[in-house]
Amino acid sequence: MKIAVVLNFNNYKSTISCTTTLIASDVDKVVIVDNGSNNDSYKYLKRALSESKNVDILYSSKNKGYASGNNIGLKYIESKYGLDNVIYIVNPDVKVNRHTVNQIAQKIYSKKNIGMVTTRVNNSMRSVWKHTGLLRGYIFNLFVFSRIVYKLLGLEERKFYKRKNDFQRVDVVSGAFFGINQRVFKTIGYFDNKTFLYYEEEILYCKLKKTGVSNFIITSENYIHAEQGSTNLSLQKIKRINDESKLYYLTQYDGAGLFYVKTYKFFNKLDGLIIKMLNKQ
Q1: Residue 136: what pLDDT?
Q2: What's the pLDDT at 103?
Q3: Backbone φ and ψ of 254, nearest 5°
Q4: Disulfide engineering: 208 pairs with which of 88, 90, 115, 221, CB 3.0-4.6 Å?
Q5: 29-35 and 55-60: which strand pairing?
Q6: How far is the C-alpha of 272 from the C-alpha of 235, rounded, in Å?
Q7: Are 203 and 249 in contact (CB under 8 A)?
C-alpha cells in the first residue's frame, strides 16, 4: 500500500486540505498524528475526516517533536498494515499530485538499495543537499555569522545540488516530503526520537548510508511547499533547539570529538549573548 503520515500541530486546516489532496493522488491510507495540539485540532480533524475509510487519526497528548510524532504514525502503520508499504512523510503545508506519488512508488520498487525518494520543491532543487559534515557544520555554527555570510556572499550551511538528470543520487533529503520503502525505514529504526526539531534529515542520511542504501530525487517531478510552519517559538528558543539537535547529530552520527564539542558550546553561548543584545535594541 501507499501510506502517508501527516504530522499535525495546531494546523488542522492545512492538514485537512493536505489529506484530501493525498487521497485524490492515489494514496491508499493517510495516517494523521495530532502531536499534542492545544487548539482543538484533534476535534476538528475527527469532525472533518473520521468518516473516510482512507484516514486514520491518532492523538498524542504531548508534543514530543517531529521525529517522535512521525514515529507514532510509523509504528501504528507497522502494527496495523504490516511492512509491505511505501511510506510518504508529508508536511501539512505540502501539495502533491497523483503522478508524483506514483512515480516515487515506482522508483522505490524498481530496484534494491533505494532509500528516500523525493522531487524538486517549488520548482527548485532545495529539497536535497550535500551532507553537512563536521567542517561545514562548524563554520556555519553561529547564527549571526551565518546570516552575515548569506547576505554578503549568498552562502548557506546547506549546499544544494544542481539538476543533472531525471533520477539523481543525493545525500540529504528534506523531511517536508519524501517516500521510502517501510521495510528499509524499519531497518534503521525510523526517526531518531532524541531530536525534537531540526537535523532529522542529516541523521536519516547517516543511518541509511550505513545500511548501503542511497537517496534519490526525481528532478522531472515537483511538489509545492507553502512553508507555513506550525511553531510560534521565539528566535532564542529556536536557536537553542537547533543547537541541541545539531550537536546531538554531530556527536552521535558524525564523530565530533571533545574539543569540537567544547568550542561548539562556547561559540553557541557567545552567539546567544549577541542575539540577546540585538533583541534589546
Answers
A1: 82
A2: 98
A3: -120, 5
A4: 115
A5: parallel
A6: 10
A7: yes
